[in-house]
Amino acid sequence: MIAFWALAVVLIASAVWTVSASKPVYSVVALLLNFATLAVLYLTLSAEFLAVIQIIVYSGAILILFVFVIALLSSGTEPFSIGPNRMPNIWIPGGIVVLAGFGFAIYAIANATFAPAPAAAPAGTADVFGSVADFGKALFTTQLLPFEVTALILMVAVIGVITLGGAQMHRVAPPKLQARADRQMREAILRAGDD
Amino acid sequence: MAVPILNYVALASVMFFIGVIGVIVRRNPLVMLMSIELIFNAANLLFIAFARLWLQNAGQVFAFLVITVAAAEAAIALAIVVMAFREEKHVDVDETRALHG
Fold it and tell me: Under an 8 A CB cutoff, do B25 and A38 touch?
């Protein structure tokens, strides 16, 4: 319980820091703290595999992508910071919205009836809930279709990114350079023919 | 579960609304994307908390799916941001006109 509250305080503080940081790099650092804390929270919820995935995929891949894009966009120019926000005095109405959503969630959950939790499997057995073996067995047997759908989603994303980046590459290649490369290749072929 | 489920719901809703405020308020597309990641993670936290409550690992599998969708979304959205920045030389979603219909 104490661990939960400590993690919750860090989570909310880092979330607020992410949204309110003055430079995007600070937002990335705050988000990194948020994701690492969330991974610990997943461990307390016995989701071992997802805690590891949270660190590897979110902190390792997605946030690095953000850092690279920030470095790429601000290279050659001065590091950009935020412009003016849309609503400078958001924190008062925003706080009201957060409290309203919080209250609504509490109200909805307090009035809902949940099925009673089933008895946990005895510890030490192979099918203890949330272990990597348990998760993997579910992923490749009963939940095979969602797993295959993730493969499709990643495929679509890769094709989309290549399409976007590839269109850019064609545009930046100047035609004069291309003509010179063609001429050099023709000359090289002719020279090879002479030999 | 040592911690009541209500605490997880409250924590996730606070995180979700902080993310929503970030998307509404900020004009930098990168920070808006990071706010969207906060929203994804709030949903993930609920999936995992309820999976633990009912000892059903379908919730964990769906959280895995959400992480995949978040990775795909971040890759494509960042590619669009880079392209838009090359066209317009600034990072401000209110000033960007390249995606007008």
Answer: no
